[in-house]
Design brief:
Helicase, Ruva Protein, domain 3, single chain, alpha/beta, three-stranded mixed β-sheet, five-stranded parallel β-sheet, flat, binds zinc ion, Zinc Finger, Delta Prime, domain 3, 4 domains, 8 strands, Rossmann fold
């Protein structure tokens, strides 16, 4: 948990943030005191112990891995092993002066630096100066630098000098969660050890030991919950257990842990899953409205639902041989039964819905609404048709009626009124469900027919002449719909963009030329891509579409005009609910 932080000049550690009663947190009291006790990091522990035993200790070590998995604990343990009066030994005695002082974080020769708060080069210069002096009483002067990736570039350079020619009495142990931020020159001078996230089962059994040593009792399900919540971090698990034990008297129950976390109990989660899977949105809403449903933390609940869906995916994809399921043993059979008979597609679609909702939760003022929306959506997924299935069904339709549809639908064949004005024209809304006239008797790639805009674009540029064509050539032509294109200028071609944007006749000339050469009228939109220096108040156009309902609506309308989508709407008797803004961007003529 809390760590002592000192630098060379001020070796007295800050006091651990302990409660006023003098209580020491579990994570500190149960810090591993021997390599054999390093739970979850057995390979690293063995390698370090062997290095000491065979007298092959390097001068710089790098411990990498997620937070709370034992990097700093191992660093201290290693320091004790090297400096124990009976050592160096893989089994430090724990009783001698150095052993006790290192454990307490009070040893002057073991200097812990938190790089997050000592990023400056002066700190490292000071370290270098101090490293030259012999240790006060220990065998080695050991620098433990935590979060070492936070050091500045110049600090790393300063550190590198010491790493290149370290005094014989100095050892470095670096710990980091982000080793890729460490310069290669430093990496290459360290022995690296990767610490892994610890499995929930391993954590739970360690927690059971701690509970027993504390003279308390806990339901296995309660410890399993704590372990799962900790997501691989022993330190998180221990502090959560600390809270949970303080939160209850007597036996620690699973319900108490749920109350502490704000998570839903198994009955609620299983009930919601079952209601959603049997397509009963009313039941979903009723359960959310019960006292248990009201008390639950939205983020926790979505995570729990996602975990249920993930388990179903595992059951469907891998069966019994798959990875461990998260579900509690009591509901395992319910879960397996709920997965059986379902198709993987719709379970994965459910996971997508939940994943999306979890993402949205971070930026919403209405978390409750996000939860309701997600769960109601889950209960309507029975109708999901996979894209592959959709494509197959369309292909079958085509095969059975070869004369019906063109094998290669061309966007320009879609019937549409001319739209000469720049913004993509608004198609008549209302009678969407019935596409006007399917492109039934159209001949594919008829030479006499209109030509795609992309194909004629080079000719358009030539026809426009050097003044206008030269400017237009700076843009790339992006097809936005069957009769709408955009000229997208990179930020570097801002001048050309402004030249065209500033004059209606110039734009009209482009529209006219393009329409002549394609044989059908086209709307042309000018767009400037956003670059570092391109953002100006008068030209917010390219950025705008992101969260713009108008742009979304246009994207939907464009999507509805794509022949394949039109066919899909017809075949499935479906409507387009929503289209991503870039959905219809590259409808290459000819791609299915
Ligand atoms: Zn000792």
């Amino acid at each position: 948990m809390a760590k002592t932080r000192t630098d060379g000049k001020n070796p007295k550690p800050e006091p651990e943030p302990a409660p006023p009663s003098g209580y020491t947190v579990l994570a500190r009291r149960y810090r591993p005191q021997a390599f054999g006790a390093l739970v979850g990091q057995e390979a690293t522990a063995k390698a370090l112990a062997n290095a000491i035993r065979s007298n092959r200790v390097g001068h710089a070590y790098l411990f990498t891995g997620p937070r709370g998995v034992g990097k700093t604990s191992t660093a201290r343990l290693f320091a004790r092993a090297l400096n124990c009066e009976n050592g160096p030994t893989p089994e430090p005695c724990g009783a001698c002066g150095p052993c006790r002082d290192i454990t307490a974080g009070e040893e002057v020769d073991v200097i812990e630096i938190d790089a997050a708060s000592h990023t400056g080069v002066d700190n490292i210069r000071e370290l270098r100066a101090n490293a030259g002096y012999l240790p006060a009483r220990c065998r080695f002067k050991i620098y433990i630098i935590d979060e070492v990736h936070m050091l500045s570039g110049s600090s790393f350079n300063a550190l590198l000098k010491t790493l290149e020619e370290p005094p014989a009495h100095v050892k470095f142990i670096f710990a980091t969660t982000e080793y890729h931020k460490i310069p290669a020159t430093v990496l290459s001078r360290c022995q690296r050890f990767d610490f892994r996230a610890i499995g929930a089962g391993t954590i739970a059994s360690l927690l059971a030991d701690i509970v027993a040593k504390e003279g308390r009792e806990a339901e296995p399900a309660a410890l399993a919950l704590v372990a799962r919540q900790a997501a691989g971090s022993m330190r998180d698990a221990q502090s959560l257990l600390d809270q949970a034990l303080a939160f209850t008297t007597g036996t620690l129950t699973a319900q108490a842990v749920h109350d502490l976390l704000g998570s839903g109990n198994d009955t609620l989660v299983a009930g919601l899953a079952s209601a959603a899977l049997s397509e009963k949105p009313d039941e979903v809403l009723r359960l959310l409205d019960t006292p248990e449903g009201m008390a639950v933390n939205p983020a926790q609940l979505l995570e729990q639902m996602a975990s249920w869906w993930r388990d179903m995916m595992v059951v469907l994809a891998a069966g019994d041989s798959g990875p461990e399921l998260d579900v509690t043993p009591r509901y395992r059979d319910t879960l397996v039964a709920s997965a059986k008979g379902r198709d993987l597609e719709s379970v994965m679609a459910g996971l997508e819905v939940l994943d999306h909702a979890i993402g949205r939760l971070r930026n919403t003022a209405h978390p409750r609404l996000v939860v309701e929306l997600a769960l109601v959506r889950l209960s309507r997924l029975g109708n999901v048709v996979g894209v592959a299935q959709l494509a197959q069904s369309l292909a079958q339709q085509r095969a059975s009626a070869p004369a019906q549809a063109a094998p290669v639908p061309r966007p320009s064949l879609a019937p549409r009124p001319p739209a000469p004005e720049p913004p993509p024209k608004k198609a008549p809304a209302g009678d969407r469900a019935v596409p006007p006239e399917p492109p039934a008797d159209a001949t594919p790639a008829a030479p006499a027919g209109p030509r795609p805009a992309r194909e004629v674009w080079p000719e358009v540029i030539t026809a426009l002449g050097p003044m206008l064509g030269g400017r237009a050539a700076a843009a790339s032509l992006v097809v936005r719909g069957p009769a709408a294109v955009a000229l997208v200028f990179p930020p570097s071609a801002r001048a050309a963009f402004e030249y065209l944007q500033g004059s209606a006749p110039r734009l009209a000339k482009i529209v006219e030329t393009l329409s002549q050469l394609t044989g059908s009228s086209h709307a042309v939109n000018l767009e400037l891509e956003h670059g570092p220096a391109a953002a100006t108040p008068e030209n917010p156009k390219p950025e705008e579409p992101r969260a713009n309902p108008m742009a979304r609506r246009l994207a939907k309308e464009r999507a509805e005009e794509i022949p394949l989508v039109m066919r899909a709407m017809e075949v499935l008797k479906a409507t387009v609910v929503q289209a991503d803004e870039d959905f219809a961007k590259p409808p290459e003529p000819g791609s299915p």
